[in-house]
Amino acid sequence: MDDNLTPAVSDAGLINPDQVYYSVGQSVANLMSGAPTVTITGGAGVFSVAQTGNIGVGDRVTYNTSAVAYISAKTNADGMHWSLVTATGGLPGDISNSAVVSITREFTSLNSAEAAASNIFHINSSDLVSANVVLNLPCYYDTGADTTEVTVDSYTTSANNYIKIYTPNNTSTEVNNSQRHQGKWDDGKYRLNVTGIGILNSAHYTIIDGLQISISPNDTYRYGIRGNNNIGGMKISNNIIKQLNAQDNSGGIYIATMPSGYKSFAYNNIIYDIVGSAYFFSSVDIESFYIFNNTAHGNTVGFRDSGQDIIVKNNLAYDNGTDYVGTFSSSSTNNISKDATSPNSGSTDCGGHSCRSQTISFVDAINKDFHLSPSDTAAKNAGADLSADANFPFNTDIDGSFRLHQGFGATQWDIGADETATQIFRSVGPSATAVLESDTAHARNVTLTSGVATFSNALADNIGVGDAILIDTGGTADAIDTSDTLLFVHGRTDSTHYTLRTHTGAIPTDITVNNTYQIFRAYTSLSNAEAGTKNTSIPITFNGGNRDLVVNNEQWNIACYGDAVDTTSVTIDGWNTGENNFIKVYTPVYTEEVGVSQRHKGNWDDGKYQLSKENVNGYTIYILDEYIEIDGLQFDVSGTGTHPNAVKIGANNIILSNSMIKDSSLNSEYIINIEGTFGDVKVINNIVYRIDDLKVGTGIRSYSSTNLSMGYFYNNTVNGFNVGIESRNNSVLAKNNIVQNCTNGYNSGFDASSDYNISDLAADAPGANSKNSTTVSFVDATNKDFHLSSSDTAARNAGISLANDSALPFDTDIDGQERTGQWSVGADDGPGVTVQTPAPNSTESPNLDINTGLVGYWSFDGETVSGSTVEDLSSYKNDGTISGVTKAIGKRGQGMNFDGNDYIQVNDNDMLDGANAMSWSFWIKLADTGSSNRGIINKYITSVGGRSYNIFIDAGEDINLRISSDGVNNEIQIAQTNLDTNWNHVAIIFNNGAFNVYKNGQVVSDDGDFTSHISVYAGSDDLDLGRDYSGNYYNGQFDETRIYNRALTIDEIGHLYRMGEDKFQTTQTDKLTDGLVGMWSFDGPDVNIATNTAFDRSGNGNNGTISGATPVIGKKGQGFSFNAIQNQYVGTVKTFDPIFTYVAWINVSSVSAVRYIIGPLGNGAPGFSVNTNRTLLLQRTGIATVGSSTGTVTLNSWNHIAVTYNSSTGDYSFYINGALAGNGNNIASFILTQWLQIGARYSGNLGFQGKIDEVRVYDRVLSEEEIDDLYRLGSVKIKK
Question: Is the pLDDT of residue 461 over 60?
């Protein structure tokens, strides 16, 4: 059997078996292309017409009227050459130019394939050993799911004569189109969806590889894959298994008793949302089952061993009820868990850190993408190398990528089913052959430690990711040549600290102090970058051009810089890419990438990167390879060329985003042109316009001969063409687009789901909610600034949120501004109106960036405080160590309480001082007034040479700032803040000696600017929060603390202040207040503990009476705790509505019985509760259940939950964490005169057990997008 499956000695079978192939699909259609003939010689088939359809191994070829053969291999990319075998695996007879009748699937379900493969029309035997064959059942996606349960039994097998059930994925040797997922569930690939057991295997030596199995159990003890009693020699690999309902006692992979003498393996599988054990092994012989590199997420139990010492290695269990249960073999190693149950208990067992209590970063866990994030630091590079494992050596992940490719970046395996691709960075500087930075005078130094370079002198701000750095290590008389070291910038901390990697992405060898280096752009045009033609000034060769990113498991980032205009057309062709092995061509923006942004700001900027081609006869850039992202570029076509295209796309899976594309040509044709039957092309947040009023050409066009391909055009702004956006054969789904000043706005047929588009023409824009004959107000359309005007009423807040779009979720606009609340239409989101800040009448700039220059941010919110560590949410990881400080209800979420003898310490980091300008922002609430000096933020020591700054409060409650520019002397300035025992926001600004302090957004008087100390010394002292260098401690509460290495503007200070305001915006026009009839935030200002009142902030006066519930730290600010005690609830005077939506944040500690979130005072009214199996219930209280969710909430974690109901139709829907979690129909005759209670029913019966926060009641049914917006309001995280 392949992949080292070890048989019992007597069970080896015959050698050199014949391979038989029978395909499984869902269709009986003829898949043949054209009307070909076939010539067969020795099993080699040559078709006269290329077969380009969705065909491959196992498909039945009928020819010469009734002769049958089966495809066994694809032998040439031309689609004409295929290997053929008979039903029993032999060679078909030779024949010349025989007419092909059809090419079809052999079976329409996997179950029927298993049952019929042994009949007289196929192998004609169930004894694969005596027939000496291998039974291959390749599974294809045609039209939908395979819905029949499968039992594999009655076959006699051996290690050489086995059964292989799999999805073919090799487009060179097996199929035209891969039938396999790419590590994430994909409805467009083969999937088995059943209500019982997906595959019940009762045959030794069975391979199940690359399938997707979803179960919706109709009873207990149903599994995705079950190995039956006394069955061994199995290999279960590269599968995704999930559960869709809440039936308990289910399982992902369950292996029952297994006989001795066999070895079985499960590796590279992902299993999630199982109400039971994801991986369950019972009574398996000692060390005969090997569980390697699997992932379990969101299950009741991740890995359960109730048998005999299962060997588990490199497995990842996260967010399960319990990650690991049972006693695993002592040979188990490098298994990681979020809780403390990993079988590996050592403090350095996982890549130098503990395997237990780890925080793992996935690409998108909410949307079930469990690929490891490139930023992960727990599972990445923390696994054991199993490529030479004695029991089962392998070296690929669930995507088929290499795990460890010696010399190619990865130095250690990752834990879990996915191996993160190695990131590669290269820079493009048009015409920039000259050196960017050179130390040939040997006056400056560079050192390299663990891949981090420290330069003695600051580098220029235009140096950034992808740039090539050559360091003189060759010993050639301080000259740079081929004997020296070439490295590439992968990240920037500041102007003297850069992360460097080799050309293969590996961490380089340390370099001691070296005084000779040079820095160049890697390539001098984007065309050269595509071809791998290096900057001629670099003497050392490096990888690039037409690489196989899948085999090498790489992901390439080509960063483009605005050194000059790039004038060479580009064709991207010849690279082998994949979903996780893609190429990103972009302009770097953030200070973690480059010192000064290389990207436009939503209008054309000649100082930023641009690809501009005059007299184009064809295209500026032509994309022929899959999985390419183009982000933040500028394109221009000009002159008199024929058929000019700025961006031409001829491949699947392309993203074009955040780009400025202008047409200056006389013979305009298609500026963005998707030509051919290509799918999954996403065109998002682009501004496409002509520079004149000729109205010629087409802005964005998808031309497909069929409706099988799909383009997604979202939030684009198009202006000044003959045709704005064109879609042929309903091949485009268009949402949130603006087309203005065109002869024909939206041309031809769009997908029926297109909506929320705007046109200034009549009856033009597709979609029921689209606007026609509507003129959008831009900032300056005449001068081609297509930002939305602050006075616009057409596009602002008129779109639909696409933050959870199934094709491509995103939440920013062309400027990088976050889209929240009600989205705007077009590429620019405008100033925006959201539920929080700024207020609807705010005049804040739409381009505020409160993250630029942020070197330390301690929010103190729940997830960021763990044990003695408080997380820094900036990108610099300045995490703090807590000494005595305790959690408290903060100004914005959770804060920290300092009681006069404790503090938080942050290790020294050069980013925290050593600047000419700095800002400090925080919320503060004094415990008392009149005390002596109290240290707030301190980076200042008593000994000379280490003094930087010290912020403290004096006895008059005024802020004092002490600055030292030389590390020895200092100067103090005082601002009259007059702080008190209420929450106050303070912002302190130091800018080259200028000194200003703001209290609650308003500047306060001070003693004047600094005169002798006009910069901050780069000291070596640690940073302390809550004490100063003399041991003066702070007494009070602290929240939302930020440090910047720049001076904040007045607008930015006001924005930070307003972010902390917890007032309900009753003047909002946001839809999230439409129909709001009750809103209980439970925050401090909204609760009067003295009178036991919880105020209703909807404006309807439905205040609640608190009975027994206690205030605690909530999801957003303060919440309430309930302990399932009689008479513990919040009772309101709100009666029930016939049409409603209930929304809340809940943290459930126990569900030993049904626990009410919202309940009535008496029978018959609506009740919203959590059932014992963690599903949500809508009940006609005390009488009957109306409906229940299919999804479940997670215990001891915050869950955003909602239910909607329409009594006139009976339709109900449940939502968990912004996603639909079940729906149905049941007309219920509710009693609507009862009063609503929070946390109980009947004045305390079946009371809630846990915490509740942010309760809302609407008298209408909210949309899925609106519920997701509410969820996002409570789950906002800083963008890193």
Answer: yes
